[in-house]
Amino acid sequence: MTERSEGSEHGAANPAGLRLVRLLFTVFAATAIGLLGTGGTYAFLNASASSGSTTTVTAGTAALSVVTPPQPLTGFYPGLTKRSSFEVRNDGDVQLDLRFASIAYGNSSAQLSATVAPGNCNGTPAGVPSGPIGLALDKGASAWLCLVITLPLEANNGAINQSSTVDVTIQGVQS
């Protein structure tokens, strides 16, 4: 009968050596998983593409002005919609896409609602409540817009014959 000595290649493994191997394997596995995640992020954050040797990026000046303001609108009653044309001009040196940005009423008890439509109010344009108007102005060009104001049908009688200022903000976004 042959005896096996502990720690030999045919005998039981050294418990301290086995723990060291397990620890090294765990550290290696955790590092590999960490590097896999970091490697993907690293590649994503450093991704680039060539735009060629003839690409030029320039910035311009955006400037928009009202050439002809809308006319005052009066005599509203519930359900009535009125329109008034106004002209805007691109005074900058870049093309601008027009957007209806915001509206403010001087008298909220007037209960008016407003939209802006492209064109000079011929016909019955509905307008957009906010966002792109659908017009692009080249530098130096002008365009007519239509301010559409409605006193909703469900407005209460206290809104009849109220007056209010209406401040409309039109933005020109470089295209």
Care to give the gist of this entry?
This protein is α+β, with helices and mostly antiparallel strands.
How is this fold's topology laid out?
Layout: H1 15-45, E1 64-68, E2 81-90, E3 96-105, E4 113-118, E5 131-137, E6 142-150, E7 166-174
Describe the fold and architecture.
- The protein contains one helix and seven strands; from the N terminus they run αβββββββ.
- The chain is an alpha+beta fold.
- It has two domains: 9-47; 64-174, Immunoglobulin-like.
- It has a four-stranded antiparallel β-sheet with strand order 1-2-6-4, with no helix packed on it. It has a three-stranded antiparallel β-sheet with strand order 5-3-7, with no helix packed on it.
Biggest sheet descriptor: 4 strands, antiparallel
Output the number of helix runs.
1
Q: What is the ordering of alpha helices and beta strands?
A: HEEEEEEE
Distance between the termini: 92 Å
| Low confidence ranges | 1-5, 38-47
List keywords for this structure.
175 residues, alpha+beta, Immunoglobulin-like, 2 domains, four-stranded antiparallel sheet, three-stranded antiparallel sheet, 1 helix, flat, disordered N terminus
